[in-house]
Every structure is written in C-alpha cells, then in structure tokens.
Write a structure and sequence with these properties.
heterodimer, A: about 325 residues, Uridine Diphospho-n-acetylenolpyruvylglucosamine Reductase, domain 2, Enolase-like, domain 1, 4-stranded antiparallel sheet, 12 helices, globular, B: about 775 residues, alpha+beta, Aldehyde Oxidoreductase, domain 4, 28 strands, about 25% strand
Chain lengths: ~325, ~775
C-alpha cells in the first residue's frame, strides 16, 4: 500500500470536485478513488493491485444516499445503502425476494454490514492471478501481458463472456438481480446526473479487460431503480461452503405467472460470467409457455449455449444448468 | 456443568475454566507480535516468484529511495547463515534450504530479500517495489510431473524407521476369499493458524531475545544459536501464547536467524510479521500423498492380508516423511501384512508436521478401504471393525496398553443413531437432499518425552509452576495448573503457571500430542518431591517408625507410606516443622524406555520421543469412533455436514472442557480436510495459487451446525504418571474417511481423491 492522501467529502459536489482531479480514462486505475464500505478497495490496496494516491471518503453522503424507497411501482435504492440493511428490509423480502436473497447470500455478516450497494456492484474479480502481483501475466493489471489463468488454475473462472484476453469471473451476487429485473443505475458526474440500464454498466473483457465499466473517472453511482414488483423471484447460489463464499454458479430468476403459464420471465447468471449476465434468449423461451421441468431444462441449456469451458471449470456448465433449472422450478412453484 | 463443560466421569478431572481464558477474551494476552519493543525497525519479506532457477540481480533503486526505508538485504549483502540439521534427522531445522545464502532458488516463495523500514507500511510498500531478475527453469511440481525422483523412505529419514511387515502377504492375498484393491489420494494442505509467522529479535549486548510463536522454545533457541554461530546460552525465546500452530511452529524456520542477524547488524530491534501468503512458503505444510491399499479377507470379514503402500511429496533438499504405515499396519488383527513408503522429490518447499501428520492421510486410505470392504462383504462397517479388533498389534505381537475402540463405536453409534442408517446407498432423503451416514476409526499414538519443571509451594497454599511448555490454545496452562493443584492438595485458583520461556525448565516440542502427558508427568514428579519433603517433616522415616514399634509397640505410619497413600497433609504444620515459608523444587521426569540422554538432549532442544508402537514392550494408542451425517443436494451437488459425532477414549482426561474443545476442533478439521482444505498448485510454475484465507477454504460456522463429543472413561496404568494418552491430534483422524463413507451411503459414489468438490459428485 503506497502512502495516500485521505480526504472526506461532505456532500456530492465536494465528492465530484475531489474526484475530478482524477483524469485518465479508466476508473479502476484512476489516482483518485472513492471509499465507501472499503471492502474491495482497501483489500486491493494492501495487495498493491490498486495504488491510488488519493482516497475520498464518501461515507458522509450516507445520509442522503442510503434511502430504500418502495413508494409507487418501483424500488429505489440509494448507492450508500448497506447490503445488510437492504437484505433485512421486510418489504423488499416480500416484493423482491431475489434482491434480498442475492444480498443475504453474499459475503459474511461483517462485510454485509460495511459494504454498500454501489461499491458492491463494482466489486472487482477474485481471480487469484489478478490479485497477486507476483504474476506478471495479467491483462487486467498489465494490459498486453497475457493471462495466467487461461491455462492455470481456473476452477473459479468464467465460461460466459470470456475473451482470449481474460476469463476472470464477476464475483458479485446483487448485480444479478439488478440486471435480471431491468434495473437502472443513476450516475452522478461533474456535468450532472445520468441514468443508464444496469446492463450497460459493466463491460465484457474483450480486448481491454482492464476497463471494467462504462463509468468515467470522476463519476459516482448514486442509486439504483428497479421497475415493477417481482414477488415471484428467487436467487439460488451454489457454492463450496454454506456461507462467506463466492458462487460457483448462481441464478437470479423472476417470473410472472398466471394459471401455470409464464407471462414474463427474467433470468440472470452469476459465478459463471465475466460480467453480470442476463440470459435473454434463454428466458425468452419461457414466455407464454406452460411451465414444466422439460421447459426448465431447455431454458437452462439455452442459457449456456455459448459457454467456453477451460481446463478446471467445465463443470460450471453442467452445474449452471442444474442451478438455472432448479431456480426456475423454485420460482414457478413458490407461494406468492 | 454444560455442553462446553461436560460433567467428569471416572478418571477425569474437573472441567475448570481455562486458566488464560479471561486474558485472551479481554485482549490482555500478549502474543509474540504484540510484545512492545523499544524503537523497532520493521522487516517485510520479498519472496521468489519462481520455483527453480537463480537470481541474476536486483533493481533496488526505487525501493531504496522510498521514505522510511532503512536498508534492503539480499544474498548479495546478508550475513551467510550456518546450515543446521533437518528436524527429522535429529536437528532443529524445518528445512535445510537456507535463503539469502546464495542466488539459487529451490522453491516458490523462498525469501530473496528483506526490506527493513521505519514502519510496517513503508517496508511493505518498498518490498512491492523490489525488482528481482531471475533465470527461471521449468520446475517439477508434484506426482507424475516430469523430473520427479522417488526412493524408499527408509534410510533417508531418521524418524521413519521401518516398513512394517509380517507373515506372507503375497501368498495370503492370493489365497484370500475376498480381495480388495484401491488407490487413494490426499491433497496439499497448509496449517493456516490464525496467528501469522511473526518474529521479533532484540539484542542486548551479545544476548539475543526472540519473541516468536513456537511449539518448541528450546529447539528454537538452540537452532537459531547454531545458525548464528553463537552460544545457545546467549539466546532466550519468549512466547507465552501461541495463536494456533498445528505443527507449523515446531521446528526452526530460516526466518528467525535472518531477522536476528539483521537486528544485530542494524543494532536495533527488528520485527517481522510475515503475510498470510508468505506463510504458505516460508514454513511447512502437509504434502500431497498417494496410497495403494490391498486387503484380503475371509467371507466373514476377518482380514488375512493387508498391504499399504504410501507415496509422499517432499522437497529436493529434505526427505520429510510422515510414514503412517506404522499405524495402519498395526490397527487391526491381520496375520499377513506388508507396507512400503516412498518419498517423491519435487521443486517444493520442505513439508512438515501438520496435525496428526501420519494418521490423517494414511488412516483416510485404510478407513476408506475398510468401508469399501464392508460394502463388498455386505457387513455393517462397525461389525467389520469388531471382527478385526485386537488386543495385540499384529507386526510384533505387542499388547495394547489399553484399547477402547469398540466401546467408542458402541457409545458413538448410540448417540449418533447409527441404527437408522440404511445400508443401501441413496435410501435416505429429505427434500432436495440425499442423506448419508458414515463412520470410521480414529486413533493416535500415545507419545511422551522427558520434561523438567520447577514448582514452588508456599505455606499459605499458593503455588507456582514453571515449565517451558507451550499453550497453542489447547489448554496447557489449565491442565498443568490442575495437575499441580491436585497433587499438592490446593485449589486450582491458587496455582500460577509460567510457560513458553527458555529461562524455565525445558519441556519437549508441543507436537505428537505429547504435551499433557509429558508436562503433567514432570509437574507431578516435582510436586511429589515437595510432598516428600513435607511428609518427612511431619512423620518419622521407616527406621524410626520400626524402632518405635519395637520399643513402645505402637505403630506409626512412616512418611514414605503416607506420601504414597494419598493421605491428606497438614501443610501449615509441615511448613512450621520445617521452619520455612516456601519450598521450591526442580525436578526432571523421563518416560520408561526413553533413551539415556533424553534429558541432556532436551536441554539442547532435541527431541527423544517415545511411545506409540513402542512403549516399553507395549503399544500405546488413543482411540475414537467418528460418525458423520452428510447431505448431498440432488440438483447443485453441494455437500453439507449437519452432524458430527465422535466418541473418544484417551486415558485420563485432565479436563473435560478443554478435551471436548480439542476434539470438537479436530472433528471439524477432519471434516474440513475432506471437503474444504486443499492448496491448489499451478503445475506450470510449481506455485501455490489459493494462498489466502478467502480461497483456501476452511469451514465457517454455518458448515458445522452440530458437533457432539463423547468422552469415554478409560484408565491406563501402563503409560505415564499422569495416566494421560494425549488427544490433541486424535479428533481429526479418520474423519475424512467417515465423510467419504457417508458420501457413498448418500450417493452410491466412492470418492478416493480428496478434497471432495461438488463437481466430483454424479447423481
């Protein structure tokens, strides 16, 4: 960890001003970084993977940016809301089980108490080669240096959205429910506020795995919006241990059903892709269909149609399919 | 009494609260890195990113000019340390690979530079800026990698004495009614004690004080002295508490002498706290093993032939070996036994002792095979063990000092509800979950070594015990205080105990589960010396007693008899008779059959352990039976263990609270060794990949909902004065087999290669 300047931003404009000094074109490499829960940033600074020269504490914005609002048809969540608070919210548990569960099943209780929603969706990959600077070959850390994971120990790595430059998995859970439910993300920058589909926030690695999002340096996520209510929704997460562990495969499923027929369906996958992953084609198979196990299996197959396995992670395709089918079944049969 | 403090049965002490409990939970207990130093400099290690090759040079320009950096030491400017003998060959060293002595690299993560700075943060940041230029060669990683060499363990490693065999295995196997053959594998594992590998060195003139978590302060003192080429009397090691060790802190690692040397050179205290990932390569680990098991049996389940062949990975430099065949060939009655252990060398750091070193991998193989045999014979696996239970080990016919294996199975089975098990796999289910039951034998050799102690008893009933034993979180303070209190007839609360300091009388390495037996036996011996003096003060000696009887016809008990009878003593009267206010005694204890030079060796920090298969013409083991209920999700194939039950018999139980805690931890670790723990190797580079606690999986609370420990009453008078067998390493033996046996029962699938991961399950 290199020495850094620590500043506190007491309001959004102070934060904008402090972050404006950042420059460059890549948020993750920007010399000025915002600190919310700190559960990723501090970690990566200690590992010398991130080396900001200035850290802006945006926790003073918590008051204004932590709201959980279910008034009207939509759900609005402030970016500084803590994962634990949203997961424990009784109305969210009822109207958006997929949101509550994706938060509840993430990390540990201590981390959920600290981590904010905005920071959580920007959580960086857990690729062990990325996080260990003694490996010279990491295209995400050192563009053009190669990828140690490609032929290395890659059990935890992605099978969807990969490129020949990077197969690092997007590690988070909550993002899967946001992308499944057509969430939008509110972004504040020096030229004002903009709102984009959550699906537009993350970038697949392609030829520039070092650029992970469409955020510009100096921008901050201020909140999220999820349209409509999704009481028939499920987040199913398969992992090596019962808690405090990343997904080997997960599925965020939301269904709108009437008389056993699916009117609308949403499906997103976690633990298997380089970015929060919406399985649009696969979910399309469900629409206006009577739900049964065979249909669930067809959807699961379709969800992994384009998967590219590596040496240790081929199992994620079979596992992912079973997780999708089971999550669909659980959503279809749940009491609403 | 409560779950945490079970009521004592016969031959058990009281479940008194931990001696150091309050100090630990209130943060008053000072671990090595907590000890404040005057104006320390902070060291941070730079370790090699290649496993084989040499250093061509360094670029230290940036690192050296960083604020707070004092100096950077590499093989180009560091003092050359003397090579010392490998622990398993009668020395002190965890490895004979001495970093900073040459530009050669013998394994990944070898120390190649040490940055010393005014703060920890400055040292770490500068370490990240040290550039090392290597010429890398292709390393050999593990079994079947190109470049391995393999040879019999016998003759390479002094601690591995023999490949046990008896009868005519080949012929008996050939003739056997039922034959079973299988191969089992266990992975690389690292101890990962909570407390990191820390070392602080302070020189005061030519006197060196070392603060370091250690399982063997006398070993460390002497090892470091040899490496630095100084008199051992000039070195003191202080280490009151150890935050977990599991074998990783038993031998002298190179870091200590390096830090001591830098502190001397800088004329300033130097403090090192190595990072978690560095702990994977600057200390030892459990190397991966492979086992071929062949069993021949009669239709009724009696073993007629057994062969266990083990292969273990070690470094190029050292022939480390666990060699668990000494246990597996003696566990059950079998007239024809053969075994062989080989060491396979690769470009790795030297492995070392890790909780139940021989038994965890070797008993996994044997106990998995026993379950497979039971399936083949259509026998209940407990009955198979009963048929082959024995009171004599088969290799040389020595009797077990005591053996309560089947009592453990019977008690454990009752508590667990083994009768609800369905013999046919896939019979039990609960919703999405298939349920399986499994069991296995746990065993651990009863070992002990010579120890010395000093005890002071005051007239007011307070006592102080001094012994350089070690409390690794195990409860050593507590049981030593209990032993003294009981022997001196004073309350537990009146005893103070000092451990972990080479100024105190020596105790053996806290390894091999010998600590309670050795330290308590020494303490009891010294307490008896005190009792002797007190009784002598109050009562006549034999001659006087005899004379009195002759002359006046009235018999009086002589002191020697009163002393032995456990007769209560009027302490105050005895002190008054002696005219003193305190008595202090130093004494030494040596187990039966221990080598003559045991105590002399102990003072030099060398280990002369006896026990296990050879304790004065007998064989001494503690036993247990472990039961696992396991669930496999039909859809995700996730594996969960809702319930563990273990029943154990280990001679005298000094304290049911600390014993339960040790065994519970063992059961959880045993389960973990099957389902979670595995160090992943990148075979291209011979590097450990998941070298952190996020990726090196250990169970969390949610993974261990119910653990039930049953302590059986057992009395063994053939082992040591304390009557203790030792149980620290008993709990995690056999558990991995019980887990795999439960997986078979749940799914019909046999997993022979650990760890079990969900992708290995096919249902």
């Amino acid at each position: 960890m290199q020495p850094f300047v620590f500043q506190s931003a007491n309001d959004p404009s102070a934060a904008m001003q402090a972050l404006a000094a950042s420059g460059g074109n890549n948020v993750t490499e920007a010399p000025v970084q915002a600190l919310a829960g700190g559960t990723t940033l501090i970690d990566l600074m200690k590992l010398d993977v991130m080396r900001p020269s200035t850290v802006i504490d945006i926790n003073p914005l918590s008051g204004a940016w932590s709201q959980i609002n279910l008034e009207g048809e939509n759900l609005r969540l402030g970016a500084m809301a803590r994962m634990a608070d949203v997961a424990a919210h009784p109305e969210i548990q009822k109207a958006y089980p997929v949101v509550a569960d994706s938060l509840k099943l993430a990390a540990s209780a201590q981390l959920r108490n600290m981590a904010t929603l905005g920071g959580n969706v920007l959580q960086r990959t857990r690729c062990t080669y990325f996080r260990d600077i003694s490996y010279g070959n990491c295209n995400k850390r050192n563009p053009g240096s190669g990828c140690a994971a490609m032929e290395g120990v890659n059990r935890m790595h992605a099978v969807l959205g990969t490129s020949d430059q990077c197969i690092a998995t997007y590690a988070g859970d909550f993002a899967q429910s946001l992308i499944a439910l057509d969430g939008t993300v509110e972004i504040i920058g020096k030229s004002g506020t903009r709102s984009i589909a959550f699906a537009q926030l993350h970038r697949q690695p392609g030829n520039s795995p070092q650029i992970e999002t469409t955020l510009a340096p100096g921008e901050l996520i201020s909140g999220f919006m999820i349209p409509g209510r999704w009481p028939r929704s499920v987040y199913l997460k398969a992992r090596d241990r019962q808690s405090y562990e990343f997904a080997l495969a997960s599925a965020a499923v939301a269904l709108d059903m009437q008389n056993g027929v699916v009117r609308d369906a949403r499906l997103a996958l976690g633990g298997v892709a380089t970015v929060p992953w919406r399985a649009r084609e696969a979910e399309g198979l469900l629409k206006e269909q009577k739900f049964d196990d065979a249909l669930a299996e067809r959807v699961a197959d379709a969800a992994f149609a384009g998967a590219t396995p590596r040496h240790h992670n081929a199992f994620k395709i079979a596992l992912g399919k079973r997780v999708v089918a089971r999550a669909l079944y659980q959503a279809a049969t749940m009491e609403v | 009494m409560s779950t945490a403090a079970p009521a004592p049965k016969a031959n058990m002490g009281q479940p008194v609260p931990r001696y150091d409990g309050v100090a630990k939970v209130t943060g008053h207990a000072q671990y090595a890195a907590d000890v404040p130093l005057a104006n320390p400099a902070y060291a941070y290690l730079v370790t090699s990113s290649i496993a084989k090759g040499r250093i061509d040079g360094f670029d230290l320009t940036e690192a050296k000019t960083m604020r707070g950096v004092i100096d950077i030491f590499t093989h180009e400017n560091a003092e050359k340390l003397k090579e010392i003998k490998f622990f398993s060959n009668g020395g002190y060293a965890s490895t004979t690979i001495v970093p900073l002595n040459s530009p050669e690299i013998a394994h990944e993560g070898e120390i190649v530079a040490v940055v010393v700075a005014e703060t920890f943060e400055a040292a770490r940041d500068a370490a990240h800026r040290v550039k090392v230029k290597y010429t890398a060669e292709t390393p050999t990683t593990t079994f079947d990698s190109p470049g391995t060499t393999s040879a019999r363990a016998k003759g390479q490693n002094a601690m591995f004495k023999e490949d046990p065999k008896v009868g005519d295995f080949a012929n008996a196997f050939d003739q056997a009614e039922v034959k079973f053959t299988a191969t089992y594998e266990t992975p690389t594992q690292h101890h990962n004690p909570m407390e990191l590998f820390a070392t602080s060195c302070v020189w005061n003139g030519d006197q060196l004080t070392i603060y370091e978590p250690s399982q063997f302060v006398y070993g460390l003192k002497n090892g470091v002295a040899q490496q630095l080429g100084i008199d051992a009397d000039k070195v003191r090691v202080i280490n009151a508490y150890v935050g977990g060790a599991f074998g990783s802190k038993g031998s002298t690692t190179p870091r200590t002498a390096i830090i001591a040397s830098l502190a001397r050179r800088l004329n300033r205290p130097v403090k090192l706290v190595a990072s978690r990932d560095q702990g994977f390569t600057i200390a030892t680990y459990r190397a991966e093993t492979r086992h071929d098991i062949q069993i021949g049996a009669s239709r009724d389940g009696r073993l007629v032939a057994l062969r266990h062949e083990g292969e273990e990975i070690s470094s190029r430099a050292d022939a480390y070996c666990v060699g668990g065949t000494k246990t597996t060939t003696r566990l059950y009655a079998c007239p024809n036994v053969d075994s062989l252990v080989s060491i396979v060398r690769a470009d790795r750091n030297t492995p070392g002792f890790m909780r139940s070193p021989p038994e965890v991998p070797y008993v996994f193989a044997l106990e998995s095979a026993m379950d497979e045999l039971a399936v083949e014979l259509k026998m209940d696996p407990i009955e198979l063990r009963r048929v082959n239970d024995t009171t004599k080990e088969p290799i040389s016919g020595k009797p077990y000092t005591s053996r309560s294996l089947m009592a453990c199975f019977d008690e454990g089975a009752k508590t667990f509800g083994w009768d609800k098990r369905a013999a046919t796999p896939k019979s039990l289910a609960d919703g999405d979950w298939l349920i399986g039951y499994g069991c296995a034998t746990a065993c651990y050799p009863t070992q002990m070594g010579a120890a010395a102690a000093r005890v002071r008893l005051q007239r007011d009933g307070r006592a102080r015990v001094e012994i350089a034993g070690h409390d690794l979180g195990t409860g050593a303070y507590t049981v030593i205080a209990q032993a003294a209190a009981e022997r001196l007839g004073i309350p537990y609360e009146k005893v103070s105990v000092s451990l972990g300091d080479t100024r105190l009388p020596p105790a053996p390495v806290a390894g091999g589960s010998n600590s309670t037996a050795s330290t308590c036996s020494a303490v009891i011996t010294v307490c008896d010396q005190i009792r002797h003096r007190l009784f002598q003060a109050l009562m006549p000696n034999e001659t006087l007693a005899d004379k009195a009887k002759e002359t006046v016809g009235v018999g009086q008990t002589p002191a020697s008899k009163a002393e032995q009878s456990g007769q209560p003593l009027d302490r105050e009267k005895a002190f008054d008779a002696l005219g003193v206010s305190a008595i202090e005694e130093y004494g030494e204890w040596k187990p039966e059959g221990a080598p003559k030079d045991s105590l002399q060796a102990l003072h030099s920090g060398l280990v002369r352990m006896v026990g296990g298969p050879d304790l004065g013409g007998k064989i001494a083991y503690a036993f247990g039976a472990e039961f696992v209920e396991l669930r496999v999700n039909r859809f995700t194939h996730e594996i969960r263990v809702p319930r563990l039950v273990g029943a154990f018999a280990a001679g005298r139980i000094m304290n049911p609270r600390t014993a339960r805690s040790q065994l519970m931890g063992g059961l959880i670790w045993g389960m973990s060794s099957a389902l979670f723990e595995a160090t992943e190797l990148d075979e291209r580079y011979a590097r450990y990949v998941n070298d952190n606690l996020a990726d090196y999986l250990v169970p969390v609370n949610a993974d261990t909902p119910s653990v039930d420990v049953i302590l059986l009453s057992e009395t063994d008078e053939h082992i040591d004065p304390a009557g203790v067998k030792g149980l620290g390493e008993l709990g995690n033996v056999g558990t991995a087999a019980a887990v795999c046996n439960a997986i078979y029962n749940a799914t019909g699938q046999r997993i022979r290669k650990l760890p079990v991961r969900l992708e290995k399950i096919e249902v």
